[in-house]
Structures are given as structure tokens and as C-alpha cells.
Amino acid sequence: MATQYYEEGKWWVSPYNFKPEVLASRKGPKKVLIHDATLRDGEQTPGVVFRKEDKVRIAKALDKVGVDRIEAGMPAVSNEDFEAIGEISGLGLKAKIFTFARAMAEDVDKALACGSNGVVIEVPIGYPKLVHQFKWTWEDVARKTAPVINYAKSKGLYTLFFPYDATRAREEDLDSLFEFIMRESPPDSVGLVDTMGCASPEAIAYLWESPRNWRPWGPAPMWCIPASTAWERGRATQPWKN
């Protein structure tokens, strides 16, 4: 593990990060993968619009600093986004290129046409959104999502299941949804998203650390995206054990 807290003229972090008692208390994984969503979630910032050349330039910069995965956009949004993602995918970057998709087969087809390596499949699960915006139940979400996850995986895409607004979901809905998905269409990984930024760090820890029937995952890398908190667990060969 690194113990250097600065590089002259480049960066400087807190030296307290490397105190022996701080290092001993860490519970995180040994390796952290960075999934950067600047080109997709960052563009949702009011007043921000990236041109194709902007996206390409930013993707090259992210790859240069060693980002593992670049979420390059949502090809279903516009032809310009579709073309930008296709150009980024063709650059031969070291980073894996991901796209954002609704739980719709046509969105997966667009991800494939762009040449992406993986797809983030979003569905709502927050109770206020289900009740007031979509008029859905967790069963509706499950039925719409499972076949699309299976379709994406059958096409060779790394598939990340992304039930957003998860921290406002009823616990029984979240558990039921994940149990169904892991039984019928297990994705490569799952993101737990605090879309509205309303959950405390302790609440996020509770959601991941408390025993649950749907857990087939091992230790999770932390995935931070703008304006929200997300944790992602990749699938492991052994069941989750507390």
C-alpha cells in the first residue's frame, strides 16, 4: 500500500491517511476500480453540454490518468451522443467503455453498435418514484429488467444492474427485487445508488453489511459518481458470508 501522501508539484493528500492506526481500521478492498461517469452523469449538470470533440478529449484525459472504466454516455439520447461514444470506443484506450441504458433491448443494441464493452442498466426502485412517477411495483421493475439483463449478457456485454434511488426504496421492495434478479438474470455486478444524496454513510454501510438473502457477492470496490453515492459489488464464486 502506498505511504507517500504527496508528489511535489502534482498532488497532496492528508498525511493522516497513512497513520498506522488509520490503516489498521480500514475495511475497504485491496484494489479499487474507478468507474468515471463524467461524460454521462456529469453532463446532467445544469448548463453543461459536451460537444463530440469535448467528449473525445475528456475520454483521452481520463484514460491517461488511469481510469479503469469510462461511462461515455447514453447512446439513446441523441445521434451526437451515439457518434461520440462510437468514436471513443474506437480510440483503443486502456479503459473499458461503458454506456448507460434503460431496461430496453433497443438501448442494449445501441450500446453494441457503439462498440462499448459494458452497459449500465438503470431502473427505478425508490418508493416515491415508483408510486408517484411510474405507478409501478417492484414486480413491474423485475419483469421489465430481467430479460434485458439476460439479453445484454448474451451479447457479451459486461452488465451492471443499476436500480437508482435505492436508498429511498422500501427495504422489502429492495430485497425482493434483488432476490428475483439474482435468481432469474444475475448481472455481472450491481450498483446501489443514493441518487438524491439523502443517505448517511452509516446507512449505506447498513445496506451492504447487514445479512441479506440475495447476496452472492464478495467485497465491493467503491464506485463514486457525481451528485450521488454508489457502491458496486462484483459477483464472486462463493456466496456472501458475514
Explain how this protein is built.
This protein has 242 residues and is an alpha/beta fold. The chain is built from eight helices and ten strands. The protein has helices at residues 20-25, 52-64, 79-89, 105-113, 127-134, 138-154, 171-184, 201-209; strands spanning 6-7, 11-12, 35-36, 69-71, 96-102, 118-124, 158-164, 189-194, 222-225, 228-234. The strands form two sheets. The protein has an eight-stranded mixed β-sheet. Strands 1-2 form a two-stranded antiparallel ribbon. Helix 2 (52-64) runs parallel beside helix 3 and helix 6 (138-154) runs parallel beside helix 7 (171-184). The radius of gyration is 19 Å and the shape is globular. Residues 217-230 and 235-242 have low confidence and may be disordered.
Structure in a nutshell:
With 242 residues, the protein is α/β, with parallel strands linked by helices.
Q: What's the order of the H and E elements?
A: EEHEHEHEHEHHEHEHEE
CATH level-four homologous superfamily name of the largest domain: Aldolase class I
Head-to-tail CA distance between termini: 25 Å
> What gyration radius follows from the Cα positions, in whole Å?
19 Å
At the fold tier of CATH, the topology name of the largest domain is TIM Barrel
- Total strands: the figure is 10
Q: Roughly what percent helix?
A: 25-40%
- The residue-averaged pLDDT reads 84
Q: Which strand order do you get reading across the main beta sheet? A: 3-4-5-6-7-8-10-9
From the 3D coordinates, which CATH architecture of the largest domain would you assign? Alpha-Beta Barrel
Number of helices: 8
> What is the overall shape?
globular
The CATH class of the largest domain, by name, is Alpha Beta
Structural class: alpha/beta
Low-confidence segments, given as residue ranges, are 217-230, 235-242
Number of domains: 2
